[in-house]
């Protein structure tokens, strides 16, 4: 009985629990309504009224009375347009209309009158900004009214801009049916660009047109006050965009500059495109004589040499003057004026550069013997480098002293020593050739050959109307003595690098290119592989960046006719380098040759194909190419030593096909990463990180190439992190890595007199005092650091680092490529004359101001003005007129400009004809300038 009945206390507890649960459920219901009440309480009376009005207007649109539709839609439009909002919140009318988005779409479908339907579509387009279907913004905009696009605010325009690119791509995927759709989109694009250009949103307009590949529309909407910002943005985007979009950006900016009469800036853009015809056209349309002079100076700095006297729209006097400026005929005079201003004309000896008395003493050994042939050769090069361009030194002033100096070397060392006089008299053709003439009648063929090379060095970057270099050297390229051929062929390559004049390029008897091509088919005993290799290199320098298919095909044919054994000769690499230089920076124009070269025997074919490919994209920052090169570097190939170790194990094992040794291709790929990334700052920083991984995990051949690639990223710009890395590898146990790192230190510090680098090199001289090869490279690096006593640079960039000089880049890449196989070239006691290829990159880093001479109209004279020199500031796409330099100091011209510095005029007394104050700058007196009147001092 007791077990069957429930305990009354227990029953009471159950009923209690039931009652409490019911109360809890009831308590939850009012809590929800409380939240709604709080929400209502949080809204102001004005917001409640707005929400009720919007709900009422939407309700009217759902009714059957058609006469209410138009007024209701107009009321909604007025309410939305009248709303104001902050950057972080949605406008309240849109917020209250968001729940009615689907209803508005249904309303649109049932509307019949075109005007009412278009107005409804307009409202849906605006409302779509807050919906989950952002493409509706564009879809309904095109169905809406033609009212100005900016009436709905900037945020609406931005949403349309974001959606158009996606819609445009979808139209492209749709095929032929997309034409009508794209035409509709294009009308919208016109409206957006027009609005952006009128409301200081030029960057957004440019980005939209770049995205849909219709930059040609930009010219119609750019106005004069905005064109400078637009063009600056386009040019800064060019290195970051793939081919062919990058050239489209540059060409568009050139056309905009021409439209507004900015001919100098237009010529800069044409130079970026390497378009000689466009340059000539701009000259034809320029009426200002002084501006033509400034443009000719820019072309001369870029080493594009034109024959202005042959142009029909110029009179003979002006053509002669333009040739004088374009051909750099007076460059040495302006440089000497700078040297006298800085009081550094006094010549220096190599010992004054080395300061070996400051090197650490060696307690357990005698001082290194500096009279070896290697040291004598290094001293010759250093003497030329430190006194480069000054026309005076202490070693070769007298013939007897020079002969003693030369004959400390022997054979090829004599050639290198004699050629060093070309550096001393650099740019001064008249005096330099007179000095060289003293050594053209000596008995030694090596001295004669070195003098021929010196003539080429002196004439490099200078185009004399009499062509003395061609007249003196062309007769010896077919000599019966190989050494004479070597000096004259390389001399011609240096003298006419990047020359686009008809007398050089013509493919008929007497043309320099024609004479050099004949050597390739020459069967004389003197036509050695070394001679033919240098011929290929010389042709590459003369035709650099021209994409000349005829000459490139002849060089390719020459390689294809060689046997596999002949292709293993180091000199064949220079034929391949010649092809690569012809296509330097020409991008897809080299594709046929890249594929054709793969047919050559492995591994030479793969290496040469990669070489041409990386040169084609030099300075472009092309990310896809860098990715491919990194993929090449990730492979592992067995070297000769590895194969010997595994030979015994393989005797008993089955024969397996082994991969060919493509390590030479990997070395070129590493150099290629530096070559491609150097044209763009972000890419350069990324490449530095990549090189860190390659150094740690790469094969030995990759580690040897990394220091050279690092130097390409920072030529004449001794950054601390790069110097520390190179210093570490200059002590490497692998001698090849150490040699490359030492030379790379010289390239990085060239012409800077950097105190930290000077101390590092002095310490290296003590460290390597027993190794003559390393010590020789340390001395050469010291000479490069003191290049021109610290007044010169090897950097291929100029004109505010926006122009990349192809011949300077060719020089830097040539010497780095040579060091990939240094033991068989530069360091083999024969081909150290290849170091002189660097002369193409040597330029004074000066600012000299010129003004028209009143006494001799049409002539220019030097003038000293005040300029502010400071660190350059990136002002691309910044609003207003931002400051272009920071941390400036005021100097009087002529002045030296360091890496990353920019100059501007300190007063408004003169107007510059170029916005970039570098090199030779022509000034005009400002007609609106009024000198400040001196105020009377209070007594």
From TrEMBL:
The record's annotation in Pfam families points to: PC_rep, RPN1_C, RPN1_RPN2_N
Q: Which GO terms of the molecular function aspect are on file?
A: enzyme regulator activity
Q: What does this protein do?
A: Binds to the intracellular domain of tumor necrosis factor type 1 receptor. The binding domain of TRAP1 and TRAP2 resides outside the death domain of TNFR1. Component of the 26S proteasome, a multiprotein complex involved in the ATP-dependent degradation of ubiquitinated proteins. This complex plays a key role in the maintenance of protein homeostasis by removing misfolded or damaged proteins, which could impair cellular functions, and by removing proteins whose functions are no longer required. Therefore, the proteasome participates in numerous cellular processes, including cell cycle progression, apoptosis, or DNA damage repair.
UniProt xrefs under SUPFAM superfamilies:
ARM repeat
Q: How does it assemble?
A: Component of the 19S proteasome regulatory particle complex. The 26S proteasome consists of a 20S core particle (CP) and two 19S regulatory subunits (RP). The regulatory particle is made of a lid composed of 9 subunits, a base containing 6 ATPases and few additional components including PSMD2. Interacts with RPGRIP1L. Interacts with CRY1 in a KDM8-dependent manner.
| Segments traversing the membrane | none
GO-annotated biological processes: proteasome-mediated ubiquitin-dependent protein catabolic process; regulation of protein catabolic process
Q: Per the record, which residues fall in region Disordered? A: 1-49, 641-661
Q: Where is the composition biased (Basic and acidic residues)?
A: 9-49, 641-659
Residue span(s) of domain 26S proteasome non-ATPase regulatory subunit RPN1 C-terminal: 876-929
Look up keyword Repeat and say if it applies. Answer: yes
The entry's keywords: Proteasome, Repeat
What is this protein's record name? Answer: 26S proteasome non-ATPase regulatory subunit 2
Q: Which family does it belong to?
A: Belongs to the proteasome subunit S2 family.
Q: Where does the RPN1 N-terminal domain lie? A: 54-359
Of the GO CC terms on this record, one is: proteasome storage granule
Organism, by scientific name, is Diploscapter pachys
């Amino acid at each position: 009985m007791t077990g069957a009945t429930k305990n009354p206390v227990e029953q009471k507890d159950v009923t209690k629990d039931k009652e409490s649960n019911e109360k809890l459920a009831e308590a939850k219901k009012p809590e929800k309504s409380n939240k709604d009440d709080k929400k209502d309480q949080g809204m102001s009376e004005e917001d409640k009224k707005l929400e009720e009005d919007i709900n009422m207007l939407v309700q009217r649109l759902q009714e059957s009375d058609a006469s209410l539709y138009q007024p209701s839609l107009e009321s909604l439009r007025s309410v939305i347009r009248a709303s104001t909002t902050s950057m972080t919140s949605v406008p309240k009318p849109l917020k209250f209309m968001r729940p009615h988005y689907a209803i508005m779409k249904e309303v649109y479908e049932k509307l019949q009158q075109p005007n009412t339907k278009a107005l409804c579509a307009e409202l849906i387009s605006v409302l779509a900004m807050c919906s989950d279907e952002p493409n509706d913004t564009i879809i309904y905009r095109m169905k809406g009214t033609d009212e100005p696009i900016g009436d709905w605010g900037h945020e609406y325009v931005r949403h349309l801009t974001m959606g158009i690119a996606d819609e445009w791509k979808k139209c492209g995927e749709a095929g032929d049916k997309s034409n009508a759709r794209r035409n509709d989109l294009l009308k919208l694009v016109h409206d957006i660009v027009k609005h952006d250009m009128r409301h200081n949103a030029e960057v957004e307009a440019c980005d939209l047109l770049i995205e849909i590949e219709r930059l040609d529309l930009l010219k119609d909407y750019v106005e004069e006050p905005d064109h400078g910002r637009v063009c600056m943005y386009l040019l800064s985007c060019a290195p970051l965009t793939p081919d062919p979009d990058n050239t489209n950006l540059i060409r568009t900016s050139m056309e905009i500059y021409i439209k507004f009469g900015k001919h100098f800036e237009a010529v800069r853009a044409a130079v970026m495109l390497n378009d000689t015809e466009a340059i000539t056209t701009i000259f034809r349309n320029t009426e200002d004589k002084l501006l033509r002079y400034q443009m000719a100076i820019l072309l001369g700095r870029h080493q594009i040499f034109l024959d202005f006297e042959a142009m029909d729209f110029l009179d003979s006097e002006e053509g002669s003057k333009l040739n004088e400026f374009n051909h750099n005929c007076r460059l040495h005079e302006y440089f000497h004026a700078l040297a006298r201003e800085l009081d550094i004309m006094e010549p220096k000896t190599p010992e004054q550069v080395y300061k070996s008395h400051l090197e650490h003493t060696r307690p357990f050994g005698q001082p290194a013997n500096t009279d070896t042939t290697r040291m004598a050769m290094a001293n010759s090069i250093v003497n030329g480098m430190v006194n480069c361009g000054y026309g005076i030194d202490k070693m070769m002033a007298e013939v007897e002293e020079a002969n003693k100096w030369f004959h400390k070397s022997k054979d090829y060392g004599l050639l290198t020593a004699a050629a060093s006089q070309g550096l001393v008299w650099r740019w001064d053709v008249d005096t330099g050739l007179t000095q060289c003439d003293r050594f053209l009648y000596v008995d030694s063929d090596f001295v004669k050959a070195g003098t021929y090379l010196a003539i080429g060095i002196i004439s490099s970057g200078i185009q004399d109307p009499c062509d003395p270099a061609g007249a003196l050297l062309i007769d010896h390229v077919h000599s019966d003595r190989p050494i004479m051929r070597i000096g004259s062929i390389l001399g011609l390559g240096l003298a006419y690098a990047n020359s686009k004049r008809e007398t050089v390029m013509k493919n008929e008897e007497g043309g320099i290119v024609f004479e050099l091509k004949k050597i390739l088919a020459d069967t004389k005993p003197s036509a050695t592989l070394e001679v033919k290799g240098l011929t290929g290199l010389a042709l590459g320098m003369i035709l650099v960046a021209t994409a000349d298919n005829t000459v490139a095909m002849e060089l390719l044919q020459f390689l294809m006719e060689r046997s596999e054994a002949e292709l293993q000769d180091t000199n064949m690499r220079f034929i391949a380098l010649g092809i690569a230089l012809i296509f330097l920076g020409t991008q897809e124009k080299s594709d046929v040759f890249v594929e054709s070269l793969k047919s050559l025997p492995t591994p030479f074919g793969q290496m040469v194909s990669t070489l041409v490919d990386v040169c084609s994209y030099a300075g472009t920052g092309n990310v896809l190419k860098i990715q491919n090169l990194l993929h090449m570097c990730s492979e592992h190939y067995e070297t000769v030593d590895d194969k010997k170790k595994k030979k015994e194990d393989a005797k008993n094992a089955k024969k397996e096909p082994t991969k060919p040794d493509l390590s030479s291709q990997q070395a070129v790929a590493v150099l290629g990463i530096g070559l491609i990334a150097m044209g763009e700052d972000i890419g350069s920083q990324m490449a530095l990180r990549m090189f860190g991984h390659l150094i740690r995990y790469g094969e030995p051949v990759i580690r040897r190439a990394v220091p050279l690639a690092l130097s390409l990223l920072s030529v004449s710009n001794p950054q601390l992190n790069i110097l520390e890395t190179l210093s570490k590898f200059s002590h490497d146990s692998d001698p090849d890595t150490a040699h490359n790192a030492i030379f790379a230190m010289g390239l990085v510090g060239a012409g800077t007199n950097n105190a930290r680098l000077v101390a590092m090199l002095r310490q290296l001289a003590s460290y390597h005092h027993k190794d003559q090869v390393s010590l020789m490279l340390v001395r050469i690096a010291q000479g490069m650091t003191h290049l021109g006593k610290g007044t010169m640079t090897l950097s291929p960039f100029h004109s505010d680092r926006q122009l990349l000089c192809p011949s300077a880049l060719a020089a830097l890449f040539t010497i780095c490529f040579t060091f990939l196989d240094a033991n068989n070239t530069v360091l083999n006691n024969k081909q150290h004359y290849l170091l002189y290829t660097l002369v193409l990159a040597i330029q004074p880093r000066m600012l000299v101001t010129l003004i028209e001479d009143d006494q001799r109209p049409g002539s220019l004279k030097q003038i000293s003005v005040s300029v502010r020199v400071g660190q350059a500031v990136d002002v691309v796409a910044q609003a207003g007129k931002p400051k272009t330099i920071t941390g400036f100091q005021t100097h009087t011209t002529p002045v030296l400009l360091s890496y990353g510095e920019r100059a501007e005029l300190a007063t408004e007394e003169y107007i510059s004809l170029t916005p970039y104050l570098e090199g030779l700058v022509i000034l005009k007196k400002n007609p609106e300038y009024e000198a400040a009147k001196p105020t009377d001092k209070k007594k």
